[in-house]
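in:
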């Protein structure tokens, strides 16, 4: 038995007895825990054996215990469109997703390559625009994007890094091939759930966790803190770092406060900050204190009412003047949203070839750009086979899954595409991989994606969190994994290679720890 990854494989030793899930149904989908014969994959044997030892009732009790812990910790998110109440506990499934060491090595290399190219693109597109002048990306696609901020032209962040923190969404198809689904470069959320999911799983499954050789994730807060300190203005020896939040009503406020607390830095709102003489200060009980680095969790448009939206009460008047003067660093830099645009996503493989002179390690999902006449005609003629997406939407909004849509819904989206083709892309409907999920005390397959988190300090200093947020579509047959659309999450276990650190089942989340001690 082998798992193929970009021409590489590892051979499973023949065994007389391989753990299996005899009552589980893969339904013809690629399953990440077992193969098509319901036999465990080489790196999932310990977990499958555990399921064979536990009764469904015991597993369900563990699920309830974990949900109670998450509730007590206040791990929530906000659904703005839910009239019944916006505050929700993020659904969690007790069955982890396991990623082999071989596959993760491939993912890690592909994500590092991708973020290097995206940072080169952002630096270029706000300055020389060589990639446009050379005809690789049409100028009209850049200039027509609402996320392209002309106010950011000429900016030069330290080390030419625009995007320091990225969350890139990955999927696997029915062959097990990994694709990049989209890039999230502005304010990627979800890493707090990764850390808390791991905390409760270690506490509830210590034995199988310890024997599965899982790589640690609890050093993320320390690495994030060191990155933020490391991007401070060069003239600052002991930088002050803050996390800038829109406030308690933001959907990801829990994460903002969680990360600030774990890094040991202040969580601030725009009203807590003031600009004086081209420097940024924080109001404290002891007077004004200078701020050198902002991990901003508010969108570009609200950062500075003097530069962007004049009606913003979330940002800081004059902040962009301080930034242009080189007296404060922002992570991520304003303007990164152009690389979030789903139309621009289609050109990332070309960026990799253009800037790095390399072939992409992780492929994009094939994408039709409706601005192009031929692509638009194909999309309109094949809407029953495609997934249609709005270029500027996120969170699962603005998506039509053609095979599951009604004729009326497809007609509605066709009219939208004809009216504003620049705002739409389409992709084939891939059969997403599945992972066993506990549904009413029974294991059923549910579709998943994966959002790893990438920290970039310099072009040659990129680190990928080993694992990430596995999002699961809890509704049977659904391909939409977003929490705002009824999705949940799973812990993600990346198997360690020889010589790599292994997480202890006893360790919890530690504020700014030394990673060598994890």
């Amino acid at each position: 038995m082998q798992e193929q990854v970009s021409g590489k494989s590892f051979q499973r030793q023949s065994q007389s007895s391989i753990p299996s899930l005899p009552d589980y149904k893969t339904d013809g989908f690629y399953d990440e825990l077992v193969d098509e014969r319901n036999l465990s994959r080489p790196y999932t044997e310990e977990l499958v054996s555990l399921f064979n030892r536990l009764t469904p009732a015991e597993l369900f009790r563990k699920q309830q215990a974990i949900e109670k812990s998450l509730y007590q910790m206040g791990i929530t998110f906000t659904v703005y469109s839910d009239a019944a109440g916006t505050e929700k506990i993020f659904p969690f499934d007790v069955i982890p997703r396991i990623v082999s060491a071989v596959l993760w090595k491939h993912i890690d290399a592909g994500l590092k390559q991708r973020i290097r190219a995206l940072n080169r693109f952002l630096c270029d597109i706000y300055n020389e625009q060589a990639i446009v002048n050379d005809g690789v990306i049409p100028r009209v696609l850049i200039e027509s994007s609402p996320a392209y901020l002309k106010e950011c032209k000429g900016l030069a962040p330290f080390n030419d890094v625009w995007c320091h923190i990225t969350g890139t969404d990955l999927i696997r198809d029915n062959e097990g091939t990994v694709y990049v689904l989209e890039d999230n470069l502005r304010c990627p959320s979800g890493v707090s759930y990764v850390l808390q999911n791991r905390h409760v799983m270690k506490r509830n499954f210590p034995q199988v966790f310890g024997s599965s050789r899982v790589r640690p994730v609890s050093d993320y807060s320390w690495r994030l803190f060191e990155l933020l300190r490391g991007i401070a203005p060069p003239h600052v020896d002991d930088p002050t770092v803050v996390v800038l939040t829109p406030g308690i009503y933001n959907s990801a406020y829990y994460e903002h406060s969680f990360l600030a607390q774990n890094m040991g830095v202040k969580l601030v709102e725009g009203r807590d900050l003031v600009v004086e003489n081209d420097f940024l200060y924080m109001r404290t009980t002891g007077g004004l204190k200078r701020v050198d680095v902002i991990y901003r969790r508010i969108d570009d448009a609200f950062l500075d009412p003097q530069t962007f939206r004049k009606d913003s009460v979330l940002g800081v008047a004059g902040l962009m003047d301080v930034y242009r003067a080189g007296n404060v660093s922002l992570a991520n830099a304003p303007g990164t949203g152009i690389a979030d645009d789903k139309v621009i996503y289609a050109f990332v493989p070309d960026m990799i070839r253009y800037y790095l002179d390399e072939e992409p390690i992780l492929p994009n999902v094939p994408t039709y750009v409706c601005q192009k006449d031929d692509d638009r005609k194909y999309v309109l003629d094949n809407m029953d086979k495609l997934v249609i997406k709005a270029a500027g939407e996120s969170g699962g909004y603005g998506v039509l899954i053609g095979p599951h849509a009604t004729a009326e819904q497809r007609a509605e989206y066709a009219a939208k595409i004809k009216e504003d083709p620049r705002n739409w892309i389409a992709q084939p409907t891939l059969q997403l991989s599945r992972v066993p999920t506990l549904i009413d005390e029974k294991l059923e397959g549910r579709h998943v994606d994966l959002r790893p988190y990438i920290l970039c300090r310099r072009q040659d200093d990129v680190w990928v969190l080993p694992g990430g947020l596995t999002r699961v579509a809890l509704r049977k047959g659904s391909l939409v994994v977003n929490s705002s659309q009824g999705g949940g999450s799973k812990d993600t276990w990346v198997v360690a290679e020889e010589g790599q650190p292994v997480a202890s089942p006893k360790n919890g989340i530690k504020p700014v720890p030394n990673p060598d001690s994890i």
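note: The radius of gyration is 23 Å.
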